[in-house]
Amino acid sequence: MNRTFVAQLGDMIGEEVTVRGWVFRLRELAKVTFLILHDATGMVQCVANPAQLDGTDLKLDDIVEIRGCVRSEARSKVGFELDLLEITVLNRSAFPLPFNSSSNLAEVPLEVQLDHRPLSLRNPVVGNIFRVQAEILQGFREFLREHHFTEIISSKIVAGGTEGGTNLFEIDYFERAAYLAQSPQFYKEHGVAGFERVFETGHVYRAEPHATSRHLTEYYSLDFEMGFIDGPEDVIALERELLTYIFNRLNERFGEMFTESGVGLLPSMLEVPTWEFGECLERLSQVHGRNDLVDDLDPEAERQLCAIAEQETGVPALFVLGFPLANRPFYTHPRGSGESAESFDLLFRGLEITTGGQRLHRREDLESALRGRGIDPTSFEPHLRMFDVGMPPHGGLAIGLERLTMLITGQKNVREATMYPRDRNRVSP
Q: What is the pTM of this model?
């Protein structure tokens, strides 16, 4: 097959080419027919004599092969068009479809879009959400590799809970029970003992019966863990650099799209402030008269704090450090007097997208923390023995990819930034 992609056509003016793709638009006039073909790299307008299409019964979203000649055209956004010489229908779409790839999907219910996901992905607006997501992943990997991190792949079938025994999906694992992993946290810590700096990208599972615009039962987590830290501030500093690197990449590739959609260019995160949890409660009290929060932040508080940060710094983001220790996982390192935790969240554009912090790195401290929560340390022996081989002070974080994508692209529901979302109601397709 001597196929040419649309992105290559600008360098082939005057040449005869063969292109393949989907019929995105079709406009038939008395003396000319305009067909917009869409492939993996872009779109091109093909110009045909109506007689050339006789007998093809062409319609939107049919798959075609077109042989044509590339012609310079100043009125085209891309600077060229394709004069059709021959067309072959490779496969036909059904008729009628619930919508077309060129439809205004703002008028198509999300459930219908999800039921016909490949069709919605061919729409540029929806497709670009996942192109942004792919760029986030690539930037995450590239930055960390450049900073001496090794990528690891851990099991998603585990014997028990990482963050407690609740909210686990139990599976029938031969003659015993096993569970889908809530987090790669333990494996990341083992990785620190082996490589010092590790990262992983992969699905995690939470059996939480939420039905909100921000929760999924299966989501994609971007995790890293690093050894030889002095405190959670080291993890925060690296995340500032990491997100700034990713955001700069996204602005370069998708800046025009961000501007046109109204979400705006992504900011530098290098100067995002860190506020202690107690300071956050004080600000909420002073600005909004709120005195109802004690040991955590609710969604409204997250939005309010981001608005306060934006007024003060110009960036709707902040790190909240020093949450009450009792509400954090047992492996969290205490802060100061021990009532608070060396643990933080990153709030961005009104929503928490990161949880991270410093972990306990001594076996005896982990055993004490487990006993303090009424848990027998022997149930965590396979994990605890890894701390006998030499574990440095360490910490890390996890970023929810779908939430971050949702906020960057200006979506209202995390399911719009998930190719095949899983929640309490949906397990298909």
A: 0.94
